[in-house]
Write a structure and sequence with these properties.
Layout (H helix, E strand, L loop, with lengths): L23 H11 L6 H14 L3 E5 L2 H11 L7 E5 L4 H9 L3 E5 L10 H10 L4 E5 L8 H8 L6 E4 L7 E2 L2 E2 L7 E4 L12 E5 L2 H10 L8 H5 L20 H32 L15 E2 L5 E4 L3 H10 L15 H7 L1 H4 L3 H7 L2 E4 L7 H16 L3
Parallel strand pairs: 2-3, 2-4, 4-5, 5-8
Antiparallel strand pairs: 1-9, 6-7, 6-10, 8-9, 11-12
């Protein structure tokens, strides 16, 4: 895999290293030579390519998954201050998106096995408030059952936003995540399954919703610069709704198009690495491995998240052994700013999240991880766990 670093037995095993397809450099140079580097023909082509990959009716490329979430919540035209259900075990950007859209996060607990909310925890959270919408996350690449969660919350599918930052490659019932969603938000951040560096996208089955996102990503302008400066175009435009500066550039889109062609191969490699981890870690004392495949569920394997006792000490031991790890995530309910905004009672409403969060550990998992690097990770973790009896 071109432009990709790999871990060796004599060096630290990195937590993640982004993969880049051979065609990326040439694609970027072509955009630079074209004289048009911001949102334009490459962005439109990337939107079509990604929609075809997902099987989605519409895709709108944006600046990040966080802005995608906010744009979707804005486009839903919810009353100001609406209650929006969200897992506490999520990246802070998802909580910020709800707050920046002018709404109130309502925390939902998780199932300890899948690390995502289930119908029971969603129903419990919905019973405390009358939710206007819900943000659900495909944690680590495990695809949530959107229909079941929407029903538990008493919401229509048009009131659910899927945080699919970890989702490319995941499927449920044979349908890729985002293929039939009303609003599914993807990330192309440097650590993600399809890295661009930065960037995001919204996949939707609703053309009008896509048009609202498309306008709002550029300040609410009725026409972007590409359409204004096409032959026969006009410099005139209107601003019909307040928007954000949240567009993707053609440089990013050209990288994304090259990366998308390589994604299926990278996903196969992730699955191979997961199978190796499963074998190497089987039977270790105190270890809980990720939720296994269930009928009709295809995991994207963005993360290989385990649960271990004495997590922080084990992280230190692995670091000493030359193995880098991470934690996904520090719950929102543990963050100072959110505790001040939401209050102690709300932040105390997710006991399973609080328990599980102290044990979560993400191991290195990326296409360029060599087999001997994985074996080194597994051996270091095995030694740390066995030393605890």
């Amino acid at each position: 895999m071109a432009a990709e670093q790999t871990a060796t037995a004599s060096s630290t095993v990195p937590f993640t290293v982004p993969s880049f397809a051979d065609e990326v450099s040439e694609a970027v140079v072509k955009v630079l030579d074209s004289g048009w580097v911001t949102t334009g023909p490459q962005t439109a082509a990337f939107e079509r390519d990604f929609a075809d990959y997902l099987g989605a009716a519409h895709v709108v490329a944006v600046a990040s998954c966080t802005t995608a979430l906010e744009l979707c919540l804005r486009a839903m035209d919810l009353p100001p201050g609406s209650a929006v259900l969200t897992p506490s075990l999520t990246f802070c950007g998802a909580i910020n998106a709800i707050l920046h859209a002018g709404h109130r996060p309502v925390l939902v607990d998780i199932d300890a096995g899948t690390l995502v909310p289930g119908p029971a925890t969603v129903a419990a959270a919905a019973a405390r408030v009358r939710p206007a919408a819900m943000v659900v996350q495909n944690q680590g690449g495990y695809p949530v059952d959107v229909a079941a969660l929407a029903e538990a919350a008493g919401l229509d599918r048009t009131q659910v936003v899927e945080d699919a930052a970890h989702g490319p490659g995941a499927a449920r019932g044979g349908a890729p995540v985002g293929s039939s969603s009303y609003a599914a938000c993807f990330s192309f951040y440097a650590t993600k399954n399809m890295p661009i560096g930065e960037g995001g996208a919204v996949a939707t089955s609703d053309g009008d919703f896509a048009d609202r996102i498309r306008a709002t990503r550029l300040h609410g302008m009725s026409k972007d610069s590409w359409r204004r400066y096409l032959p026969g175009g006009s410099w005139r435009y209107d601003v019909r709704n307040l928007g954000l500066k949240a567009n993707m550039t053609d440089i990013q889109a050209s990288i994304g198009r090259a990366q998308l062609a390589a994604l299926p191969g990278w996903q196969r490699r992730r699955a191979e690495l997961v199978a190796r981890y499963d074998e190497a870690l089987r039977g270790l004392p105190g270890l809980v491995v990720p939720q296994r495949e269930l009928d009709g569920v295809q995991h994207a394997w963005h993360l290989y998240q385990v649960r271990v006792p004495d997590r922080d000490a084990i992280i230190a031991e692995l670091e000493s052994a030359g193995v880098a790890t991470s934690v996904h995530f520090i719950p929102a309910s543990h963050m100072t700013a959110y505790r001040e905004i939401l209050g102690e009672e709300e932040c105390g409403s997710v006991p399973v999240t609080d328990e599980v969060a102290e044990e979560l550990l993400s191991l290195p998992l990326y296409p360029g991880l060599p087999d001997d690097g994985l074996e080194r990770v597994a051996a270091a973790l095995a030694g740390a766990l066995r030393s605890r009896g």
